[in-house]
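quick one before i forget lol
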Amino acid sequence: MSPAAKDIDSYLAALPVEHRAALQKVRETIKAAAPDAAESISYGIPTFKYKGQPLIYFGGAKNHCALYGSLGSVIAAHKKELQPYVTSKGTIRFSPEKPIPAGLVKRLVKAQMKDIEAGAGAYRKFSRKDTNSAQETDAPTTPELAALLIERVFDAPRELVWRAWTDPEHVKHWWGPKGFTSPACEVDLRVGGTYLWAMRSPEGWDIWSTGVYREIVPLTRIACTKSFADENGNIVPASHYGIAAALLVEMLATVTFEDLGTKTKLTLRREGMSDGEMSEMDEEGWNESFDKLAGSLKHGR
């Protein structure tokens, strides 16, 4: 595994020549469009921040380069211009041989800047009475706690979906967004037991997560905590992975499994994620993981 880059120069230096050249042009274009934006590394990839908020991310994978971020409204507004590229809610993928034109990158960045200036995605404060678990965060100010809710119906019986979620060998087939793999997974499935899951990015850096099972109703419900961790299972702050967004060190996840005969409705609820950028990217990551889970279930695993 390659270590996570400490700055954008070292990140680009580790990429193939074609990727490096394409992304260096993207970097220069973003700088020109947003001269007041600050460069950093977040999520292990290059990031520009504007007025204290993530403006745009960029990175390279094995077969493509991409722009990332809270880009839903920006992508929708430039839908026609982006037709040649693969897009999703917060991602624009392009090949290093056919990069996005500088003029279009500038327009995307300028539009994102306007959203930030208008307050889109800004973190809102919350009253401490709204939560009893907000004692420790990675941010100097306390964010509003956002609850992520995702419902999916899988074309597989409940027993198989449950096993895919609780058996380490099954989990490794689907855990992580598109392009990620899962090199390691440990599960002690009992109340008070812990888990330790790893996902590996296309660039080769690992992100570990751990938690404690608080409730287990076989085939029906799992409730557990969720935290970033190191490879030994020690809880670490998000900043350990270069993530500067505000979120709780310990979050809560609840998963329910509803029997629909030959199908299963799975409902995921996550609490403790900050509002805005992190919530949107977290939702996209989970949906991509669930897409992989659906494919894995078709093969009975």
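fyi Helices lie at 8-13, 17-33, 72-77, 102-117, 158-166, 168-171, 277-298.
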